[in-house]
Amino acid sequence: MSTTVTPSTTAPANPRSRVILASLIGTTIEFYDFYVYATAAVLVFPHLFFPTGDATTALLSSFAVFGAAMVARPLGAVFFGHLGDKRGRKITLVGALLTMGVATFLIGLLPTYAMVGWLAPALLVLMRLAQGFALGGEWSGAALVATENAPKGKRAVFGTFPQLGAPIGFIIANGLFLIIAAVLPSDDPSMPSEAFLEWGWRIPFLFSVVMVIVGLWVRLRLVESTAFENTVKSGQVKKLPLAAVFKDNWRQLVLGTLYMLATYVLFYLMTTFSLSYGSAPIAPIDETKQPGLGYSYQTFVLMLIVGVVFFGIFTLVSGPLADKFGRRKTLIWVTLGIIVFGLAWVPLLGAGDLGVMAWLILGFTLMGMTFGPMGALLPELFPTSVRYTGSGLSYNVSSILGAAVAPFIAVWLWSVADGSPFLVGLYLSVMGVLTLVALLLGKETKDVDIDD
Questions:
Q1: Would residue 411 count as lying in a domain?
Q2: Which of 361, 351, 352 is nearest to 167 (CA)?
Q3: Which CATH number covers residue 215?
Q4: What are 343-353's pLDDT values in tens digits?
Q5: Rounded distance, CA 414 to CA 302, Å?
Q6: How far apart are the first and last CA of the chain?
Q7: Residue 1: pLDDT above 80?
Q8: How many domains does the chain have?
Q9: What is the dihedral of CA 134, 370, 308, 129, to 10 degrees?
């Protein structure tokens, strides 16, 4: 890990406004693209790409493809991390954004199962893998742009800006789906309309190209950070960053992966699984479906958006707290909250509309508090020469252990428990315990010098 010394006072290479915008807009676009798929995985793809005749099996198949992207993310972290540590942050971030944008746009043009049979889900998997590959290089690059250009004592604050892209991307993606669903209403609140299934669902995917153009314009104006330039001038650029980080920083890789575990599980349970559970009928007529909360899609997405507003607010709140009290201490208390929250799912969800809304607000508040400090914590674990690779691997390997399987496991636990959310909450609490152990074993990083 980087040596603890007095933080550098070297002036950042980019203006603060450019740093904030470049780190925020890219992750907003990337998370928008991911959320568009997550929403379609619940609403559209089980009907159009996985028509098995069993609703639970179709949903599980759709979530399995959703998880396939997480498997590709570590590969993207290795590829883009290698470029970022050897060639610089700017060119790497542009490449990741382009890859994600093209893959998302092409999903909007895919034929369905009724048109081409099993070629349709195969193409969907391919595009999903490309999305995951791109996101594997996006987050760490955005986090490095923010933290390597942050003023003294403000790294956690600046590190929250790429994190803020997650709630903003969620609101834009789901808001657009809501507008389309309102324009193309369905007679059955548990099912999208025929027009929505025929062509309406494609609009959010095609719209992503507009956002990508804006993101590219911002990122092409960046210059390299002082930290990276110092590494180049001193001849410390590694020939093989991946080999170097495994040789010299393997402990930080393991800790960073476990730090993110509870965050990822909470993230995807609150955004992806919750939409399935919230919009499922209380007493489904079809025996292949599991009972849920019985809200219409539109109503529950509006409730989700309210919760995500708290996600955004507390992402920003977490930065000053992590700078003042330290990343480790802040996250230990938040992780304890996540463990308790997982155990409180059944009482909250059984308390009517107010209980469900409280469940969403509490979950997303904890999400903001745990996600925000990660933008500074993971980059601080590694020296500049392997920072892109190391932080990216930790972040994205954790995506396999947490996010890739979280919706799939949650749906399975939901069915095993005959529609009860108890086992799903318990699963979250167990993951929280693993993260808590890692935090207790780790060290504080807020005073490390990242300009080494």
A1: yes
A2: 361
A3: 1.20.1250.20
A4: 998 888 888 88
A5: 23
A6: 11
A7: no
A8: 1
A9: 20
